[in-house]
Amino acid sequence: MPRWLSLPAALGAAFLVLPVIAIVARVDWADFGTLITSEASRQALWLSLRTSTISTLLCILLGTPMAMVLARTSFPGQGVLRSLVLLPLVLPPVVGGLALLYTFGRRGLLGEELEALGIHVAFSTAAVVMAQTFVAMPFLVVSLEGALRTAGQRYDVVAASLGAGPTTVFRRVTLPLVLPGLVSGAVLAFARSLGEFGATITFAGSLQGVTRTLPLEIYQQRETDVDAAVALSLVLVVVAVIVIGFARQGRSVL
Amino acid sequence: MRRLAPLLALLVLPLAACGDDGPDGTDETTLTVYAAASLTSTFEETADRFEAGHDGVTVKLSFGGSSDLAAQIQEGAPADVFASADTANMDKLTADGLVDGVSEFATNTLEIATPPDNPAGVSSFQDLGKAGLRLVVCAPEVPCGAATQTMAGQLGVTLAPVSEEQSVTDVLGKVTSGEADAGVVYVTDVTSAGDAVHGVAFPESDQVVNTYPIATVEGGEHAALAQEFADLVTGAAGQQILQDAGFGPP
């Protein structure tokens, strides 16, 4: 590596790390415990963890087959399909929220059908999960598709030639080989779900215990109680660091 | 390293150019006005009128939640004028000695907004307490939510909203999209939304009134000009613009 690269690298690192230090420096430690254990804070944290876990599971269930289709098959229009599936990566989350509203909302594309079935999505915890899954799924698909392409198909071919059926190959050979990719994709999806704000506030609204996740609670608190907002922000940072650390640990074991 | 220098200069130049383009050399003066989001259309009109009467002056408008704007001014934002949607946020800045010459210039009251076809048949504030109604209100932390809460308390109506939004525009959005059966917003929001919503005025609305104060910001570069802008808002021309948008007199 050319030595001069370390200067912009240090600048970049400082740019990313300084704001985190600034948050820590701003925390009101004397009241920290009280601030993060208030009823509203605990409900928001619990709601965030619950919905993010469900969203991550949905991402795995629906995203893994999608990654397989994108990595292991080829058909006309596949490139376009891939771009469309990855769109939420680059779409502003608020736009994603509006899109969900126009699909599943009362006056949306599927609104009448859902209403007829007695399903009310808007303003429910289910809407939070949908918003999170929408923005997080591409992260899982991208990282798993990459892992599938890197792993290649040699072992799959060998297993098949030894008489294993496609499902057995997928379950016993393909998935174990790409497990690190799947784990890191799931962790990214979880982290993205945990931080989801724009799509949630647009599509699900904001009500304590039902739809007000931790980022929404922070956004609300910063209007009136900056200390509480800062304390909760630190909680979110810590949870994110734990998740990333856990994932690294998991990957090195695998 | 030497070949990097022009690159670094390129990176830094635009940053330097972002600096204050104040009265140095050019005759262009920029007056920065921070105003509550509910003042958006009226202040845009007022600013146009101000620019027309002041050659070489550009009015830069920044709209947001009053508490957000107040917080930004406390952190040293370069505002010349501040117009708040409630007295509480202005009082905060007065207490910190950050504003000067506070005067009240408008009032706003609550109104119910429903989708154009009013699917739940809301006709009074009391109707908002009905079970099964999908009601959206502002969170109690923001001025419109505080007003809604006070109103419900005075009328003895128990509200069970499906969502407590962060700003009055978020409430309006949930109503115009048809997701909510009703939302509590300001009279002026119903006026500006036009055909997108149906307004349900209620006789008790004058019991809870939000007062809008305006002031010049201490330490601003253009104190005299800032005062002229505030005078325009409180004067006859400014008052007419506000009145047309549905605001009440101070």
UniProtKB/TrEMBL annotation, chain A:
Annotated ABC transmembrane type-1 domain ranges read 45-247
Record's bilayer topology term? Multi-pass membrane protein
One molecular function GO term is: molybdate ion transmembrane transporter activity
Q: Which InterPro entries match?
A: MetI-like (IPR000515), MetI-like_sf (IPR035906), ModB_ABC (IPR011867), NifC_ABC_porter (IPR006469)
Provide the primary localization.
membrane
Compartments, record wording? Cell membrane
Q: Which GO terms describe its cellular component?
A: plasma membrane
Could you tell me which PANTHER family the record lists for this protein?
MOLYBDENUM TRANSPORT SYSTEM PERMEASE PROTEIN MODB (PTHR30183)
Under NCBIfam families, the record lists:
Mo_ABC_porter, modB_ABC
Stated name of the protein: Molybdenum transport system permease
Instruction: Give the organism the record lists.
Output: Nocardioides agri
Automatic annotation (TrEMBL), chain B:
State the Gene Ontology terms under molecular function.
metal ion binding; molybdate ion binding
Q: What does the entry list as the binding residues for molybdate?
A: S38, S66, V168, Y186
UniProt keyword annotation of Transferase present: no
Instruction: List the GO biological process terms.
Output: molybdate ion transport
Note the superkingdom of the native organism. Answer: Bacteria
InterPro entries for the chain: ModA (IPR005950), ModA/WtpA (IPR050682)
Q: Name one Pfam family in it.
A: SBP_bac_11
User: Which keywords label this protein?
Assistant: Metal-binding, Molybdenum, Signal
**UniProt entry tagged with the keyword Metal-binding:** yes
Gene3D superfamilies for this protein: Periplasmic binding protein-like II (3.40.190.10)
Q: Where is the signal peptide?
A: 1-19
Q: Which CDD domains match?
A: PBP2_ModA_like_1 (cd13538)
Give the family per the record.
Answer: Belongs to the bacterial solute-binding protein ModA family.
Q: What is this protein called?
A: Molybdate ABC transporter substrate-binding protein
Give the organism, scientific name: Nocardioides agri
